[in-house]
Amino acid sequence: MTSAVRFQKVSRHFGAVRAVDGVDLEIAPGEFFAMLGPSGSGKTTCLRLIAGFEQPTSGHIEIFGETAEGIPPYRRNVNTVFQDYALFPHLDILDNVAYGLMVKGVGKVERIREAEKALELVKLPGYGSRRPGQLSGGQRQRVALARALVNKPRVLLLDEPLGALDLKLREQMQEELKSLQRALGITFIFVTHDQGEALSMADRVAVFNDGGIVQHGTPQDIYRRPKTRFVADFVGSSNVISPDVMTVLGGEKRWASLRPEAIRLAADGIEAKVENASFLGASTRLTVGIKGTHLHVMLPAGSDIPDIGIAIRLAWQQDDVHYMDDAA
Amino acid sequence: MTALAITKPQTSILPRRGGFFSRLSDNFWRHPKLLLLLMLTPPLLWLGIIYVGSLIALLLQSFFSIDDFSGMVNYEFTLDTYAQLLNPGNFDIIVRTILMAALVTIASAIIAFPIAYYAARYAQGKWKALFYLGVMLPLWSSYLVKIYAWKLILAKEGILTWLFDKLYLSWLLDGVLALPVVGGNSLSVSYLGTFIVFVYIWLPYMILPTQAALERVPGNLIEASADLGATPHQTFRTVLFPLALPGIVAGSIFTFSLTLGDYIIPQIIGSSRLFIGQAVYTQQGTAGNVPLAAAFSVVPIVIMAIYLWLAKRMGAFDAL
What we know:
The structure holds two protein chains of two kinds. By secondary structure, chain A is an alpha+beta fold. Chain A has helices at residues 43-51, 93-103, 108-121, 137-149, 167-184, 195-201, 219-224, 229-235, 243-248; strands at 5-14, 17-27, 32-36, 58-63, 66-67, 78-81, 155-159, 187-192, 204-209, 212-217, 239-241, 256-258, 264-279, 283-290, 293-300, 311-315, 322-323. Chain B is mostly helical. Chain B has one domain (80-313): Orthogonal Bundle (MetI-like fold). In chain B, 71% of the residues lie in helices and 1% in strands. Chain B is built from 14 helices and two strands, in the order ααββαααααααααααα. Chain B is extended and about 90 Å long. Chain B starts with 19 loop residues before the first helix and ends in a 7-residue tail after the last helix. The interface between A and B is medium-sized, with 24 and 19 residues.
């Protein structure tokens, strides 16, 4: 089966800066794919390479089996939802959504009908006559989505699509994007620096650092088995333990990650001192001092919350300790 | 906490510092409109009385007429003076001036756009400084000096004729000068010469507002347009141009109105046929016909009002 998007040794250099350096990537049709990484890691440049705003310095890009390098953005059946939406301020919402059809020469009656359908799809029916300036951030986000989807792209690119929204709206949009993608079956590729977003929405995640992909796999894979310290650190919430501490704790002398929820209270465990406790509702998060290092521990709801300063005993299964490559 | 330790108890309201001015500041703070009034009154008086007042005086003059025998102004309301504007000789002047102003404006807009686009999109650092310097520098030297310089450039014995000659292109220049109406004995005594100098002199007033408008167009709108399938030509027509239009219109208000009112350029460079500015100058000066001069000067005001109204109706200010 042809991949939706395929990168072969793709590099994009800006002078001495290697924004993207020798990236190999394959994204399957219909996949919800996340590019996760800190700013400057090359994820946005990869997205722009797919959209056609950037051309690779070297390497080969295919979109559904067709060579993409040298093809201008307006000849690619790929659409983008921009980070700050990039709605046209001089056009009303309907004309914004119908823009892609208009420039392709679709007749007025048909493009208005299609644009109205797209607005219904993003739950903004009847907003057509407003101006972008009259909408809230969340509504503009939906218009940007409708404006891209109305073109029936084969690949939809989303650049930090939820970055500017507040928490509640973000969670709501996450679910809507996910169900929209399932319903339409279009390949979604989205860029984010928010690991929670990437893990909760994507079928597959690629973690970027320094212009390259450090690890890619399913969210569970990346969360449970981070390949390097960087991934464990960035994907977050896991305890990253140095080789020295690992030997003291009775493991191999290698870098390791240990998930907070894998640690439990046990009478025969290693002694630790409670340094902080935060009640999170469904669980309680402890920070403990243990053998000269700090660990996070997630206690399930229902356990007693220990007082700060007291000593507790902790244990975990050796299977839960995941050893990683040394690379930072 | 110790770093913030307060050594002695403090009051929650600070005492007034200074005397009279502090009291004044407090009062202005409580009555912000008072300060606004104080700041705006002098310029409003100046504009209101000196400028608008004299404008109204001028308008009134245009409704009087001149006695053909005595040459004295007849202070009775009449529209005769306006009727005189429709005399073939006078009407020609108006048409000629409007046509020239329109052509100068269109040419300025066409020349200014690429320059402004480069400055807004690509120029950075010292190139941007160089752009501003290049556009503003001509404005620092005297208007008259520039026009006389152009007179020398365009004259029959001037550098342009010499250049065309050296390039074996004299036939081209002669051909252009042989054209009816726009041509003439040399560029410096033709409509074409007047046009060239007008465009040169007013071009900065078109470049700067256009550049400011283009500067405000976010780069990602251009990308979004391409992303949605628009070719560069379509992007220009449907995104870039509409968003730059307020700037172009602002620039065109300058170039159009300045050309309408100018009386020095056509006097020094061009055929001896009059423009509105020159007509006003001669009517109120040598001819002593102040009412007709006033009527002539009402023409650009009316034309500008119509122009702005049309621009507004065409949506030129929608993107503001």
